[in-house]
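Now for a typical sample entry:
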Amino acid sequence: MIFAAGLGTRLKPFTNNSPKALAEVNGKSLLEHNVRYLQRFGIYELIINIHHFANQVIDAVADNDGYGSEITFSDESDSLLETGGGLAKAAHFFQNEPAFVVMNVDILTNLDLGKMIVAHYQSAAHGTLAVMQRDSSRQLLFDENNRLCGWVNNNTNQQRIARQTTVAHPFAFSGVQILSPTILSQNPFEGKFSLIDLYLHLAPTLQINAYDHTGNLFIDVGKPGSVEQAEYLFS
C-alpha cells in the first residue's frame, strides 16, 4: 500500500492545485518513483489511498497504465483517515496475504526492501519498521532486541512508553513497514488514527521490530527545498 491521501501542506504552493503524489523529481512523479521502486522487489499489486485532488491521481495512473502495476484505489475523498485509518479502510485488500508492504508516497530511498522482507520473515515479527539513525523531531524507541518499546518527541520531551525496558534506543522512522495481518485483526481503533498509535498500543503483546537501514539514501520529500535535494540524490 502507498499512502498518498495527505494534503501535502509542506509542499505548498504546489499542492494548492495538485496532490503531493504527483510532485515531480527528475521528470517522474513521487507516485511513479515509488511504484517502480516496489516493482524492483517483485511487488506489482498495489492499493493507493487518495483524498486531496483524488481525480488527478486516478487520471495519472490511468494515463500511464498503472506504471506497469495493477493499482486499486482506496477513496478517502469524504474523510481523510490518516495512516492507521487509511490502512484499516484498505484491510480487505490484504486478505489471505502472509505479509504486505506499506509506505508513504513522499519518501525516496534506496533501502533494500528485499533484505527487509527476509528479515521480517526470519524474525517472525508481526511488524517490521524501517528506521535510521538520523536527526528527527520525533523518534521511535527500541530495546536491546530491536523491539518497539516507545516514542519520543524531542522538541517537547514528551514520551510514550509502551513497554518497560532497561535500554531504549532512539531511531527515526522511514515511513516503510512490513506488516502481518495480525496487526489488522488486533486493531481496536476506528475512524481516523495514526499507525504509530496502533503500533504503540500493540507493542506490549505483539513483536514489532526495527530494521536499521542507516547509511542508505533517504529523503522525506516534504517541501520544495527537499525536491531539489531529491533530484540530486536520485538522479
Notes: The chain has a mean pLDDT of 96.
